[in-house]
Design brief:
Strand content: 25-35%
CATH class: Alpha Beta
Structural class: alpha+beta
Strand order of the largest sheet: 1-2-3-4
Helix content: 25-40%
Distance between the termini: 16 Å
Number of strands: 4
Radius of gyration: 15 Å
Oligomer: single chain
Number of domains: 1
C-alpha cells in the first residue's frame, strides 16, 4: 500500500488552495481523473465554515448528497483541517477569533492499488485572529480522510 508519487491528494489540495493561478493545478487534478473545487469563507463561527465547505462539495458533486459515508468522510476532513487552522481548539467566536479562509476540496484515488479506494482532502489557508482589522495572522490546515 504505497502512495503514488505523483498523486498525493493532500499535496494537491494544498497546492490548489495556495495557487494564485489555479489553472495548472486544476489541469494536474483533471489528468488524474479526480474531482475538486475551491471557495472562500469568513466567519466567527466554526459551524458556518463547515457548512460553506459542505455546501460547495455537494454543489460541485464532490460528494453525493444522499450517501452518509461520503458526507461523513468530508466532515472529518473538514474538522481535521480546522484543527490545523485553530491550533487544536476548533472554536472561533467564543474565543474572540475570526477567520477569513480560502478552501480546496479534492477527491480521488491516491494509492497505486486502486482497491484502496477513494479519499478526500480539504485544505484551508487564510487568516485568523481577533475580530479587529489588522489583528490577524496567516494560518493553514489540511484534513485527509478515506471515503
Amino acid at each position: 500500500m504505497s502512495l503514488s508519487k505523483d498523486s498525493r491528494i493532500g499535496r494537491s489540495a494544498i497546492l490548489l488552495v495556495l495557487s494564485d493561478d489555479k489553472s495548472e493545478e486544476l489541469e494536474k487534478i483533471k489528468q488524474l481523473d479526480w474531482k475538486c473545487c475551491t471557495g472562500k469563507v469568513g466567519s466567527m463561527e466554526a459551524h458556518k465554515v463547515v457548512a460553506a465547505i459542505e455546501t460547495a462539495a455537494k454543489k460541485n458533486e464532490i460528494v453525493e448528497t444522499g450517501l452518509y459515508r461520503e458526507s461523513h468522510a468530508l466532515y472529518h476532513a473538514i474538522i481535521e483541517s480546522l484543527h490545523g487552522v485553530t491550533r487544536g481548539q476548533v472554536q472561533l467566536g467564543s474565543m474572540l477569533r475570526t477567520v477569513g479562509l480560502s478552501f480546496a476540496i479534492v477527491r480521488g484515488t491516491p494509492y497505486e492499488n486502486k482497491n484502496e479506494g477513494e479519499w478526500i482532502a480539504v485544505s484551508l489557508y487564510g487568516t485568523i485572529g481577533a475580530p479587529v482589522k489588522g489583528a490577524e495572522h496567516e494560518t493553514i490546515g489540511l484534513g485527509v480522510n478515506h471515503i
